[in-house]
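Morning F.,

Quick status update on the modeling queue. The single chain you submitted on Monday has been processed. Sequence for confirmation:
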Amino acid sequence: MKKTILSMILAFLMVASLLVSCGEKSNDSPKQTTANVNVDPEIKAVDDYVATIAQNSSFDGQNFTYIGRQSDNFPTEYEETGNLLSDAVYKRQRDIEEIFGVKWEDVVTEHGDDTQQRVIQDTLSNMGAYDLAHGAVLTVGQPLMVNKAIMNVNDFSTLDLSQEWWISSLEDTFSIQGKLYLLTGTIVAEHYSDAGCVLFNKVVADNFDLPDLYELVNNGQWTIDKMFEVSQSVPANANGSGVYRYGFTDHRSVGFDFLFANGMSITSFDENGNPMVADALAPELSNFADKMCVVLGDESLVCTGRVTKSGGEDVNEKYGVEKVEELFIDGKVLFWLDSTGAVTSFREEEVEFGILPYPKGEASQEYRTYAQSGMGSAVYVPKTIKDVEKVDVIVEAMAALSQKHLKPAFYDKMLKGRSTYDSESRAMIDIISTTKVYDLVDIFSGGDMNTRGDYINLIDRAIKHDSSSLASSYKSTAKVTSIKIKQLVSYISKDE
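Structure tokens below.
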């Protein structure tokens, strides 16, 4: 009897379920209903946006040629291989082919010099071989701009720099006399790798009963003074056998990370939109360097891989770069100061760590993240392109589709490790990546990927090591930099 009743109940429920599902169908197909449930709203928004700008744009099998050195921006194979970033780039390129009817072509060079030389030669010969170029701002963007080989993208009509896939500070940072020659954001694979960040060792933080650092960030209380205050829970390490409060290596411009996070910049602009540097050392810069170097230059508080004076003299031989990284992994360093690209190198190590943005100068300020010039990359539109509309539309679509494909891949690569796969770290990287700023003088004041200009090195060293020579050396280095920036402005003024 019980089985009969149970069977009747089950039969009733099945019929009721069918009636309900029939009543819900209305005019929508089951396929549409499923899609609406499963599609990520951000991805749907990107798809809708790209579909809108593609409505009247079909390029009938034309080539779209992208040139740059071998990097994550170019698939390792012309197919999916299982590599997160490479596959994401591949999918983005295939979407563009399908949506716009173009044939995508990658021209992969060995290095940035080769990229910029090819684009410059193409400009001289007016061949129009490339639609878009990629490369480091310092070593590719600078020579392309000076040689008038790239277009002012402010002339484009589809390009919308207010969209979230573009760096919000682009116009403020890189426009010269209202002209903009480079684009960066999620469109380049380095977008999540060139920004400064603070890693903290979770075990050390727990051992010294530190407050919730994520909460400090979310409440807007994560300031430089708060960072110094929190780190005082860790005693000074005079003999090198205890725990250091801070660790960093000289390959990262930690001084500039703190300077920009503090709300300061190197470049200012005159009334005509021309970049310039101050002839005299600003008191606020001098005071800031004095304050910071007291902490960052103290070897009982900080372990560094290598810090050099002007001329390359090594002033800290206690630890090599690899040794400092080992100290962080081994729980001998509380805060590790580096770039977001360093997250992936620690991801597989036996270390529990979290990710934070650089601390602000004051609680009332917004978070501000310095994107180091030597690590930052962008895309550039060669002057010789044959179809402006094609490049305009596809570059905007390429950036939007990067939000769909590259962003998830970055998060998987950076956060799905042993230590950082938590919602807090993901939120921190969102803050870091959306508050990035570049500095034009930093990029164009001289030097290359390995040797930056004396003016920039002077300020960075003063903040993170010793500010005593800042006042005496500032004027001469600023003068040389000012001349270089005026030359750049002269090139731009003559560009029509």
